[in-house]
Amino acid sequence: MAQATFEEISASDFFYRNRDIAGLTNPSRAIFVAIREVVENSLDAAESQKIPPDIYVRLSYEGEATKETQIYKLRVQDNGSGIQPKFIPSAFGQVLYGSKYKLKQMRGTFGLGGKMAVLYGQVTTHKPAIVTSSTGQAKIYTFTLMIDIQRNRPIILDRKVLINKDNWHGTIVEFNLEGDYLRAMPKIIEYFKQTAMVNPYANLTFVDPKGRLYKFTRATTAMPDPPTETLPHPYGVDVELLQRLIQITSSTNMSSFLRGHFHRVGEITAQKFLEFAGIPPSKNPKKLTHEEIVKLMQNLKKFKDFLPPDANCLSPLGEELLKAGIMKELKPEYLVVHQRKPSTYAGHPFIVEMAIAYGGDIPKTGNFVIYRFANKIPLLYDEASDVAYKVISSMNWRRYKVASDMPIAIVIHVCSTKVPYKTVGKEFIADRPEVRKEEANALREVSRQLQHFLSRKEHVHMEKKRLSIFSKYLPKIAQFSAMLAGKEKAPDIEKLLKSVQKYGAEES
Ligand code: ADP
Ligand code: MG
User: Fold this and answer.
1) Sign of the CA dihedral 264, 270, 276, 280?
2) Are residues 390 and 429 in the same domain?
3) What's the pTM value of the predicted model, to 2 decimals?
4) Which ligand is nearest to the CA of 147?
5) How confident is the model at residue 422 (pLDDT cuts 50, 70, 90)?
6) Domain count for the chain
7) Are residues 170 and 86 in the same domain?
8) pLDDT above 70: percentage of residues in the chain
9) Of 36, 37, 44, which is best to mutate to test ligand 1, by the most ligand atoms within 8 angstroms of its C-beta?
10) CB-CB neighbours of 484 under 10 Å
11) Closest Cα to atom 14 of ligand 1
12) Does an H or E element contain 383, and which?
């Protein structure tokens, strides 16, 4: 019998072999995902400093076209934080390397997105990526890089240093990739439009390969506060995490260990919990056996009196900004926005923001237009698999006097330190009961208000109809009654008509 041969592959090699995990399935999807990942990094880099983002994206033709695919050059420039030169090569040339493995809301989560785009570009065009960046200090650095896929390490082909005369801060990423822009175009434009909606403080410019310019101008410079990093919540920990914390802790007793490493655990809560778990407060955490750690984890999940996580680690848009974004992109006749209080699933805090818009630029498609966002990222694929779709389709809309052929858009934003995506491709949110409940409650709230608006609108409509009948017949009635009364001139009806019309106008 032939012997099996065993080998180990690196993280980049794994993602090189399994590109579709990150959504790079075909030339059309790949170009969309590449743009999205690089733009998201730029948005994160500007928002983390509370700088209103200015992002310039250019996609241009490069080389000869074949029938289905074409080589493009993608260039994305931002005015964000910039990256220190010592981190640039790995940030763009080493898969699973990043600055966002933190407990706070960010778009990036895996240390993967931007690099997958660069890696895809490299394997489809065999050209390096060029990254230029400055943190606003004296110098600007430009690296020409490739990824050593087998070793998962960056290869630096060239490094240039320029004097930063204007204190510029930001990053420019440039690389070639294979794709099919013409097929991807509708999704890409939709991506920018929705990104503008959920980031109303950003200026986004996109120049496509045909030289067409798409410009989304900010409606405000107000921005949500950046999230602050948090500690793990006791309901969300597992044995691995406990072991790591025990390894690094300088606490010599359980009470200070719990207070120092877990979110919202104070003196009293620690005391109550240790009593509940039957652990002496003075016990040294480093002395816990493996069995005791497993038991500790189980008790952490069972204990009912931990405080819910607070939401400082989240950065929702807030009602005002969400309103500004939707007004800007959809210009609706009516808009209602609602933000739920923070909630949690499996120890992860999350907030649901919901809006319903009616009329304006919203098309009548026979169905509601659904806009889904997670941590301010538009989700454009697999709508029917998203928990929001289930929530919307299981609502009893007749109760709210809403019909699907009305020009209605529903906007859902879920933000969390850990969005429960079903796939690495970040396209739809899993059906977690806690998330579903929050979305349903938010939707009921905005629907109630929409119902008021619709019935007011209906009332005004009826009133207008009544007035138009009234104004049609009133002159005739006036004439007729003048005749009956034997008067020569009919009474002046203008005044009367005006006063009724005024009443109608006030109502609408
Ligand atoms: P992720 O965003 O999930 O961390 P990426 O591969 O997209 O993974 O990016 C890796 C890291 O590179 C980020 O964590 C960030 O620190 C840095 N980075 C990427 N793009 C930018 C940018 N435009 N500005 C500043 N830092 C960036
Ligand atoms: Mg990223």
Assistant:
1) positive
2) yes
3) 0.89
4) 1
5) confident
6) 4
7) yes
8) 97
9) 44
10) 8
11) 98
12) none
235 touches 306 (CB < 8 A) = yes
Query: Is any atom of ligand 1 closer than 6 Å to the C-beta of 78?
Result: yes
Which residues are paired to 337 by β-bridges?
Answer: 355
Host H or E run for residue 497? helix 494-507
pLDDT reported for residue 67: 67
SS (H, E, C) 318-353: CHHHHHHHHHHHHCCCEEEEEECCCEEECCEEEEEE
Q: For residue 282, give the CATH number of its domain.
A: 1.10.8.50
Q: Which of 41, 95, 377 to mutate to test the pocket of ligand 1 (most atoms within 8 A of CB)?
A: 41
**Same structural domain for residues 143 and 25?**
yes
Find out whether the beta carbon of 355 lies less than 6 Å from any atom of ligand 1.
no
DSSP letter at 179? Answer: E
| Cβ neighbours of residue 176 closer than 8 Å, sequence gap 6 or more | 62, 71, 72, 73, 74, 121, 125, 127
The residue segments making up the domain with residue 322 are 311-450
Q: Do 157 and 12 belong to one domain? A: yes
Q: Supply angle C-alpha 123, 125, 130, rounded to 5.
A: 95
The structure tokens 């003075």 sit at 282
Residues with CB under 5 A from ligand 2 (ion): 41, 108, 113-114
Domain co-membership, 29 together with 91: yes
Q: 83 CB less than 6 Å from ligand 1?
A: yes
pLDDT in tens, 344-379: 888 889 999 999 999 999 999 999 999 999 999 999
Ligand 1 atom showing the smallest separation from residue 110 Cα: 3
Percentage, residues of the chain above pLDDT 90: 76
Of 450, 465, 495, the position where a domain reaches its end is 450
Q: Do 31 and 177 sit in the same domain of this protein?
A: yes
- Residues 43-69 pLDDT 10s: 999 999 999 999 999 999 997 766 667
Which residue from 397, 494, 506, 404 is spatially nearest to 447, judged by alpha carbons? Answer: 397
Ligand 1 and 77: CB distance under 6 A: no
* Statement to judge: residues 23 and 136 lie in one domain: yes
Expressed in angstroms and rounded, the spacing between residue 42 Cα and the centre of ligand 2 is 8
Ligand found nearest the CA of 111:
1
Q: What is the mean pLDDT of residues 71-84?
A: 97
Among 216, 250, 275, give the residue marking a domain's end: 216
Look over the chain and give the mean of its residue pLDDT values, rounded to a whole number. 92
- Closest-CA residue, ligand 1 atom 17, reads 91
Q: Ligand 1 centroid vs 359 CA: distance in angstroms?
A: 39
User: Are 488 and 390 members of one domain?
Assistant: no
CATH of the domain at 50: 3.30.565.10
